[in-house]
Structure formats: structure tokens, C-alpha cells
């Protein structure tokens, strides 16, 4: 259903039905005839009274005009009464009423008020081409009308000029009212489009925020939970392990669980607040790669880090954070899909040439049990690198290994 603006909702009686009909797209599409509002009834009654008053004034002028015989004066009053009654039909048939009034006003003085009201209604409700034809014909009949029925106390040129100016004024007034209503409809449409665009922008922003949070959750929690899985599996399959090794594995599990809970708490806090929380832990950058590799080594992985970056502290935070997430996801995937292999992480670059991150591992030895995964990690890394202005490629390398290579701009 179409929504009428709040400006028109509380005071619908104050606005014309035609305007409310234009503001209701459902009614316009369905072709329903607009119902008269209280304002319409008041205006129509005023127009009827005005037509009657003008007709009554013309009756007195007919009685004192020696050029009008009594029989013609009686017929004039009959046509005038019918014309005044027809004013109530002006909203339903504005064009038909204006066309019918053209010959009636030519033969009846008392129908003059009703004719002007019909012409005004036509100018309000119909395009200018109809108004131009009907108004032009009425104006063309004015000299002939006063030549056949001259006024008793008004000169012929003055009467013709006055009637022509009155017709033009009525048409101009009606066109002004029509333009004002069209302006209101246009403003309403603009407001509706602005509201729709604002809602779409808000929905898009929310969707992008959810996607960013989902990527961050995957990047952060996947690494922690993989450590939990590896050490829990080691404790399950080696119940006779030395107490020191068991304690180390339990410590890694406890620390990874604590870190995962803290990361999850921060992400949930962002969801509740609706905006990033600057009071949380700082995001990891290039300087945290050593810590990431150390955690992986503690989990039993064989990791080799080749860190050849000139001035790593000068790297933009967004570039460093993206490089860290790429290395983290590469280590997580290698731990899941190629356990026991030696993973090499290579980070090179300098200002002006960009930053290159490469994570590769040889094929695993023996059969690797299937590990559940959605495959969204590499897709999220590709999107993250693209948003940073870089590129990322991944796939198998000659010999059966797997490689993730990314290039990030560093101005």
C-alpha cells in the first residue's frame, strides 16, 4: 500500500481529493476515482453559491437591458439554473463540463459564473492543451457575444477587453493551482525516494558491517579453535604422554580458549554497540607475525618465517593488519589440511614497491583425514586484499603443495 506523507495523514480533510489521489500511488494505479473530502464539499458549495450569485446579478442586468426580449430572458434563466446545478459535476467531468459550458455561456448571461468555474476547474485538473483549446474558443466568442448582445451602459471595447482579461486571469489562476499541486507531488516523490535511498544505504551499510564482522570472526576464531582441536586431539590419542607435555598442551588449550572467548566478547560488543569499540585490544599488524609463528610452533607446527620488510613500523596499519590475517589464515589452513609439513611464511616489501605475503607448504605425507571447513576463509582474504587495493591468488603449486600469495600496496 502507498504511504501518504505525515503532512497529509493527520489533516486529510484540509487537502483536495485530487491531490491526495496523486499522492496515493496504489489508488492511481487502480484507477479508483478519488472520494470527496470535507474540503471538497466546502469548496464545491462555495463555487455553487458563487455561480448562483453571479447568475442572480445577471438576472437583474437582463431586466434592465432593452436589447434582450422577455422570452429570451426567461430561456436565459433556465440555462443559467441548469449551469449552476452542473457545477457539482465539475470534479467528475472537468473537460466535458467546460466544453458543454462554452455554447451555454454564449447564449446565457446567467450561466457566466458557472462557465468561469468550469474553465477554472479544467485548468486545475487537465493539461494545458485542453485548457488552450477551450479557453481560446471562449475568448474568440467574446467579441461576437457582445456584438450580438451589447451591454446597455458599457462600451463595446471595454466589455470585450474586460471579458477577455477575466478569462485569461481565470485560466492563469487555475494553472497556478495545478502547478502548485504538481510541485507538492514532486516534493513528496523526492522525499519518498530519499527515504528509500537512505533505507537502502543503511541496509547496505549493515550488510557490509555484518560481512566484515563475519570475516573478522572467521580470521580470529578459526586460528584459536584449530589450536584447540590439535592439542585436544593429541591428548585424546596420547593418554600416556609425559606430564610435562600434557601440561604444555593443556596450557595451550587454556590460553587459546581464553583468547577465543576474549575475541568473541569483543565481536559481540561491536554487534551490540553498533559501531567499533576503540577501547578493545589493538589489531595485530606486521609486528605481531613473530608472535603468530611462535604460537603455531608451540602447537607443534613446523613454521619458517622469512621476514624481509624495510621499516615495518612505517607500514600502514590497514596493510599490516591485512598481511597478518593472510599469514594467519594460511597457517590455519596448512595445520588443517597438511599436518606435519613445514610451512614457510615469506613477507617482503618496502615503501613504494608494495608488500608481498607468501605462505606455502609441501604436500602432506600419507592420508589426511577430512577436516570440516566452509572454504570461506580464502574468499574472505581475497575480498580483504581487494578492499585494501591489492590482489590475492591461491592454489596448488608444482609438486603437490599449496600456496597463498598476496600483494598489497604500500605508498
Automatic annotation (TrEMBL):
SUPFAM superfamilies the record matches: ATPase domain of HSP90 chaperone/DNA topoisomerase II/histidine kinase
Alphabetic keyword roster: ATP-binding, Kinase, Membrane, Nucleotide-binding, Phosphoprotein, Transferase, Transmembrane, Transmembrane helix, Two-component regulatory system
CDD domains listed in its UniProt record: HATPase_UhpB-NarQ-NarX-like
Enzyme Commission number: 2.7.13.3
Residue spans crossing the bilayer: 41-63, 97-123, 130-148, 154-176
Protein name listed in UniProt: histidine kinase
Any one GO molecular function term: phosphorelay sensor kinase activity
Presence of the UniProt keyword Cell wall biogenesis/degradation in the record: no
PANTHER family from the UniProt entry: NITRATE/NITRITE SENSOR PROTEIN NARX-RELATED, NITRATE_NITRITE SENSOR PROTEIN NARQ
Domain Signal transduction histidine kinase subgroup 3 dimerisation and phosphoacceptor: 210-274
Reactions the enzyme catalyzes: ATP + protein L-histidine = ADP + protein N-phospho-L-histidine
Xref: Pfam families: HisKA_3
One CC-aspect GO term: membrane
Amino acid at each position: 500500500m502507498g504511504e501518504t506523507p505525515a503532512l497529509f495523514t493527520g489533516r486529510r480533510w484540509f487537502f483536495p481529493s485530487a491531490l491526495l489521489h496523486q499522492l496515493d500511488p496504489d489508488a492511481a494505479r487502480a484507477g479508483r476515482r478519488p472520494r470527496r473530502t470535507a474540503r471538497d464539499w466546502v469548496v464545491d458549495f462555495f463555487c455553487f453559491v458563487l455561480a448562483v450569485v453571479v447568475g442572480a446579478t445577471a438576472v437583474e442586468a437582463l431586466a434592465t437591458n432593452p436589447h434582450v426580449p422577455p422570452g429570451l430572458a426567461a430561456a436565459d434563466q433556465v440555462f443559467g439554473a441548469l449551469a449552476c446545478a452542473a457545477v457539482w459535476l465539475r470534479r467528475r467531468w472537468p473537460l466535458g463540463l467546460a466544453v458543454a459550458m462554452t455554447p451555454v455561456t454564449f447564449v446565457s448571461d446567467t450561466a457566466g459564473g458557472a462557465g468561469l468555474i468550469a474553465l477554472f476547474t479544467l485548468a486545475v485538473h487537465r493539461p494545458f492543451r485542453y485548457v488552450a483549446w477551450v479557453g481560446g474558443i471562449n475568448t474568440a466568442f467574446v467579441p461576437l457575444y457582445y456584438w450580438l448582445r451589447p451591454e446597455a451602459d458599457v462600451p463595446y471595447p471595454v466589455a470585450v477587453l474586460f471579458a477577455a482579461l477575466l478569462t485569461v486571469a481565470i485560466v492563469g489562476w487555475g494553472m497556478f493551482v495545478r502547478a502548485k499541486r504538481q510541485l507538492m507531488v514532486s516534493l513528496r516523490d523526492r522525499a519518498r525516494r530519499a527515504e528509500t535511498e537512505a533505507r537502502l544505504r543503511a541496509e547496505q551499510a549493515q550488510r557490509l558491517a555484518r560481512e566484515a564482522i563475519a570475516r573478522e570472526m572467521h580470521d580470529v576464531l578459526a586460528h584459536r579453535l584449530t589450536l584447540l582441536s590439535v592439542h585436544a586431539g593429541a591428548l585424546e590419542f596420547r593418554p600416556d604422554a609425559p606430564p610435562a607435555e600434557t601440561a604444555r598442551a593443556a596450557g595451550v588449550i587454556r590460553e587459546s580458549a581464553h583468547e577465543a572467548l576474549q575475541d568473541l566478547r569483543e565481536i559481540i560488543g561491536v554487534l551490540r554497540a553498533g559501531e567499533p569499540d576503540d577501547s578493545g585490544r589493538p589489531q595485530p599488524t606486521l609486528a605481531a607475525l613473530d608472535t603468530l609463528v611462535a604460537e603455531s610452533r608451540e602447537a607443534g607446527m613446523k613454521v619458517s618465517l622469512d621476514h624481509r620488510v624495510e621499516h615495518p613500523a612505517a607500514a600502514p596499519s590497514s596493510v599490516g593488519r591485512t598481511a597478518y590475517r593472510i599469514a594467519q589464515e594460511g597457517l590455519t589452513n596448512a595445520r588443517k589440511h597438511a599436518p606435519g609439513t613445514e610451512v614457510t611464511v615469506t613477507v617482503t616489501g618496502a615503501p613504494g614497491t608494495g608488500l608481498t605475503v607468501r605462505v606455502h607448504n609441501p604436500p602432506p605425507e600419507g592420508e589426511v583425514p577430512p577436516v570440516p571447513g566452509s572454504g570461506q576463509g580464502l574468499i574472505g582474504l581475497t575480498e580483504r586484499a581487494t578492499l585494501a587495493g591489492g590482489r590475492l591468488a591461491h592454489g596448488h603449486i608444482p609438486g603437490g603443495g599449496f600456496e597463498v600469495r598476496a600483494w598489497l600496496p604500500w605508498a
